[in-house]
Amino acid sequence: MARIFLIALFCVLLASCGSSAAPTTTLAPIHIQPTPTTLSQLAPTIAPTLTPSLATTAAITLSEGFAQPESMLHNQLSDLYLVSNINGTPFGRDDNGYISLVNPDGTLKQAKWIDGASAEFELNAPKGMAIANNTLYVADLDTVRLFDPVSGVLKGTIAISGSSFLNDLVARADGTVFVSDMGVNEDFSSTRTAAIYQIDAAGNVALAVKLDAGNPNGLAIAADGTLLVCRYDTAVEIFALAADGTLQPYRKASASQHDGLVALADQSLLVSSWQTASVHQLMADGSERIVYVGTTGAPADINVDAQRGGLLMPMIVTSQVVLWPLAD
What we know:
Number of helices: 1
Largest sheet: 4 strands, antiparallel
Strand order of the largest sheet: 1-24-23-22
Radius of gyration: 18 Å
CATH superfamily: TolB, C-terminal domain
Shape: globular
Order of helices and strands: HEEEEEEEEEEEEEEEEEEEEEEEE
CATH topology: Neuraminidase
Structural class: mainly beta
Distance between the termini: 28 Å
Helix content: under 10%
Strand content: 35-45%
Number of strands: 24
């Protein structure tokens, strides 16, 4: 999650209650300030290089029922889209976070399917989600909460000792779940806890990698099972977790301040950037194109509906959800 969003979000709440390398692609220049401080400065001047087309539907925007949606996930067990809603400060232990259900046709099925207001469990500021081992895993500050992926009933919790700001989750085919800790305080100073943890099917937690610098954010799994990581800092690279337990450059984007990361079947990657308020597609051959250009902040933890070819985008600044068609 971007620091820029946090600054903007805090302003909204008060009113109402990097190591960059030169681009190697042919994208138009990005004419924005390198360290924007307002949402207006985030508005990109690059035009999309892709005209989206999809056999099913056009783009759909949902504006009701959401409160700072941070992550989306296609639940293939129920064929519904899950949306995690922070509903307040991303750091707050306010027990009012919730998860919404959206139908694939773009209609809201249930605004508060899993609700922190329930007396049965705690849910503060839910962010990344993953489904594995017949369980829905949800990142919540320093804890991963476990729910039944169909009924929404709480199954348990896993405390991640030493973590401070858990963000994204991703599941590997063998049932291993990875969770990133951005390692930041509310003022975005470092907690020195930046790391990625892995959780096995039995719920055992192990450290996958500790970062001395950088803020790990979005996670994805490559076709060969390799963990991929993007960072919200000045790094333009996407990193891969090597066998020696270090993060090594894997692919490069033309912009930094990354949030969501998705690995597609054609070996390309989708990454959302707060520097450009856009979603970039990084091809296996090193080329790049823009599949979505935002106007008010970047999509946060994006995901895809592979069955329908749709990009699922939580718009955390505007509290909207966008279903965006992807071209073949």
